[in-house]
Design a protein that fits this description.
Strands 6-7-8-3-9-10 form a six-stranded mixed β-sheet, with helices on both faces. A four-stranded antiparallel β-sheet has the order 2-1-4-5, covered by helices on one side. By secondary structure, it is α/β, with parallel strands linked by helices. The protein has helices spanning 50-57, 89-92, 99-104, 114-127, 143-156, 173-190, 204-210, 238-242, 245-262, and strands spanning 8-18, 25-35, 39-43, 65-70, 73-74, 82-85, 161-165, 196-200, 213-217, 224-229. The longest helix has 18 residues, at 173-190. The chain folds into two domains: 8-81 and 163-262, 3-Layer(aba) Sandwich (Rossmann fold); 94-158, no CATH class. It has nine helices and ten strands. A hairpin with a 6-residue loop joins strand 9 (213-217) and strand 10. Helices cover 36% and strands 23% of the residues. It starts with 7 loop residues before the first strand and ends with a helix. The radius of gyration is 18 Å and the shape is globular.
């Protein structure tokens, strides 16, 4: 999907970030749009500012310069219109709450009844393939299942944008592939309400497999090196999609851009 003026949900303009006034910039002159319903992947070498950029976009961190707009409004603090899934599922869930109460936690001030909150949570858990686990505790689940719970919690409030910060980096390769397909299923199911997803990853293959578009950042200070349209049909599968000529061509293009930035 190409960004357009009419459908841009998130607009990042001339964004810069310094952690101290006399320190080097972490990000400089970052400009791009995220289209409504798009699944955008952010990739780049370690230290390029991907997580910093993500935290600014969802209101957890202030930019030093430039703007982030959500539906035309400046992002200055976290809001219920966005949700964030972290990398470390073991620290993002509350171990003393069962799965259902973990997922309903963001709904505490929404004015919903207990029955409505439970129904929302069960629907979100079903969306990530976790029916029947609501009364279990996080420590009773595998790592992959815990991360599914974290994704369900992000979905339960029906946000406009879901941000994911390397959400599959802490699981094994097989579980990672399963979670990638869960995210694709969530995105396909959510197209009815046009949820937008911004996904940070170090894994180039993962970015191409999941995304509509891959945004490549340069080494520090991070800026946009390239915006690459993936152009792969959906639905996608691990075997067919990853072996297609288009997948291989886009993957190589992303690798080439990253390599050029390191020279």
């Amino acid at each position: 999907m190409s960004p357009s003026v009419d459908t841009a949900v998130v607009r990042v303009a001339r964004l810069g970030k310094r952690y101290s006034s006399d320190g080097p910039p972490a990000l400089t002159d970052v400009t791009f749009d995220v289209t409504e319903g798009e699944l955008l992947a952010l990739v780049g070498p370690s230290g390029c500012g991907k997580t910093t950029l993500l935290r600014i976009m969802c209101g957890l961190l202030r930019a030093s310069e430039g703007t982030v707009l959500l539906d035309g409004r400046p992002v200055v603090r976290p809001s219920g219109e966005v949700a964030l899934v972290f990398q470390d599922y073991s620290r993002s869930l509350f171990p003393w709450l069962d799965v259902l109460r973990n997922v309903t936690f963001p709904l505490g001030r929404d004015g919903l009844s207990r029955t409505e909150r439970a129904a929302r949570a069960e629907a979100a858990l079903s969306e990530v393939g976790l029916e029947g686990v609501g009364r279990k505790y996080p420590w009773q689940l595998s790592g992959g299942m815990q991360q599914r719970v974290a994704i369900a919690r992000a979905l339960v409030s029906r946000p406009e944008v879901v941000f994911l910060d390397e959400p599959f980096a802490s699981v094994d390769a097989l579980t990672r592939a399963e979670l990638q397909d869960v995210l694709l299923a969530v995105h396909a199911h959510a197209e009815n309400r046009r949820v937008t997803i911004v996904h940070v990853t170090h894994d180039v293959d993962e970015s191409v497999y999941l995304a509509d578009r891959v945004l490549v950042l340069t080494p520090s200070p991070g800026t946009v090196a390239a915006s690459i349209e993936v152009g792969l049909p959906r639905p996608r599968t691990q075997t067919v999609t990853r072996s297609s000529p288009r997948f291989l061509a886009v993957r190589n293009e992303v690798h080439d851009v990253i390599a050029q930035g390191r020279r």
